[in-house]
């Protein structure tokens, strides 16, 4: 019988979010401090061979889905070759991606061949000027071209929009209108306390405020069925091809059904996005103790998983939050 990752609250953890780099070609204000950040040295990153070795152990422990994150995954050289290697793992049922839209047409075609057809794009505005203010980069047209190409090649596309009351409230209605003629899902996220500093204000635009605002513009919206272990509460405007959802990323109402584990590009294993790293699998792997030691470290980490994100956050000793580009979301 296959061993599974089940925590003390009975949650089966079968979904690994795997960051392959902390580097990104954007500089979104909520992800990185304005002055930038010190990226890790290349030798500190897990190699693709090490990532493949570790992911096989996770799959042997019952992980069925892996989401590739960053930073921006497609700034790391050789990422498509790694995805091809990962896709050969027969025990893995699904590989998905999160990107800022820096995927070329050629790379999109290769993803389709590999059967990787679910992509989340982080996009916080449909207005080029606001996009530039948020990302500090002039890449709006490039990102929109990526989204159009993904849809043209029949990818399952979700757009993730972090809502800030001072920056992009005016984008909420246009995003929902985008789902009228396009079969995509837009998810609106509460702000999260991960900007690389210890300064964070509780978001005014929580999921209740977001719902009220949307309902005032689209009173006919209806609730639709959420996917298993979904972090979003999902809705649709009748007659629209696509849908939208609200992710209570700060309120954390989804913790009770959490099935996620996170591994950073440097090997830090987190059983909760909001908590500290439990151990470093890179260091264990490079010390040469073998597969059993890695399995033991993973199982020990799962055994100590916090009940929810608030309990996990309280375990961070100095109160500071790492940049989301390092954590991978």
From TrEMBL:
Cofactor(s) listed in the protein's UniProt record: [4Fe-4S] cluster
CDD domains with a match to the protein in the record: Radical_SAM, Twitch_MoaA
Substrates-to-products reaction catalysed: GTP + AH2 + S-adenosyl-L-methionine = (8S)-3',8-cyclo-7,8-dihydroguanosine 5'-triphosphate + 5'-deoxyadenosine + L-methionine + A + H(+)
Xref: Pfam families: Mob_synth_C (PF06463), Radical_SAM (PF04055)
Residue stretches making up the Radical SAM core domain: 8-234
UniProt keyword annotation of Lipid metabolism present: no
GO molecular function terms listed in the Swiss-Prot or TrEMBL record: 4 iron, 4 sulfur cluster binding; cyclic pyranopterin monophosphate synthase activity; GTP 3',8'-cyclase activity; GTP binding; metal ion binding
Protein keywords: 4Fe-4S, GTP-binding, Iron, Iron-sulfur, Lyase, Metal-binding, Molybdenum cofactor biosynthesis, Nucleotide-binding, S-adenosyl-L-methionine
Presence of the UniProt keyword Lyase in the record: yes
PROSITE patterns registered for this protein in UniProt: MOAA_NIFB_PQQE (PS01305), RADICAL_SAM (PS51918)
EC number: 4.1.99.22
SUPFAM superfamilies, per the entry: Radical SAM enzymes
EC top class, as a word: lyase
InterPro entries for this protein: Aldolase_TIM, Elp3/MiaA/NifB-like_rSAM, MoaA, MoaA-like, MoaA_NifB_PqqE_Fe-S-bd_CS, MoaA_twitch, MoCo_biosynth_MoaA/MoaC, rSAM
GO BP term (any one): Mo-molybdopterin cofactor biosynthetic process
NCBIfam families: moaA
Protein name: GTP 3',8-cyclase
Native organism: Cyclobacterium qasimii
The encoding gene: moaA2
């Amino acid at each position: 019988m296959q061993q599974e990752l089940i925590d003390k609250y009975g949650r089966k953890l079968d979904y690994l979010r795997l960051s392959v780099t902390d580097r990104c070609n954007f500089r979104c204000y909520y992800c990185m401090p304005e002055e930038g950040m010190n990226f890790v040295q290349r030798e500190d990153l897990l190699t693709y061979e090490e990532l493949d070795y570790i992911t096989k152990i996770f799959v042997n422990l019952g992980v069925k889905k892996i989401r590739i994150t960053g930073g921006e995954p497609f700034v790391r050289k050789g990422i498509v070759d790694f995805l091809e290697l990962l896709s050969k793992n027969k025990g893995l049922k699904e590989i998905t991606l999160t990107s800022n839209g820096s995927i070329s047409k050629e790379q999109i075609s290769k993803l389709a061949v590999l059967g990787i057809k679910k992509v989340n794009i982080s996009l916080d505005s449909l207005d080029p000027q606001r996009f530039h203010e948020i990302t500090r980069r002039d890449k709006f047209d490039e990102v929109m071209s990526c989204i159009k190409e993904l849809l043209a090649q029949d990818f399952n596309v979700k757009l993730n929009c972090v809502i800030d009351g001072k920056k992009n409230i005016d984008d909420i209605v246009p995003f929902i209108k985008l789902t009228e003629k396009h079969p995509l899902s837009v998810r609106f996220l509460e702000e999260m306390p991960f900007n690389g500093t210890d300064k964070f204000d509780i978001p005014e635009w929580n999921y209740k405020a977001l719902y009220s605002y949307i309902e005032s513009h689209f009173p006919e919206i209806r609730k639709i069925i959420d996917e298993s272990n979904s972090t979003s509460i999902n809705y649709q405007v009748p007659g629209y091809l696509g849908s939208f959802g609200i992710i209570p990323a700060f309120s954390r109402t989804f913790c009770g059904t959490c099935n996620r584990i996170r591994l950073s590009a440097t090997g830090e294993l987190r059983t909760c996005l909001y908590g500290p790293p439990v151990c470093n699998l890179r260091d264990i792997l490079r010390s040469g103790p073998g597969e059993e030691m890695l399995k033991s470290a993973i199982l020990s980490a799962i055994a100590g998983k916090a009940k929810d994100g608030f309990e996990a956050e309280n375990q961070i000793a100095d109160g500071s939050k790492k940049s989301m580009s390092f954590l991978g979301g």
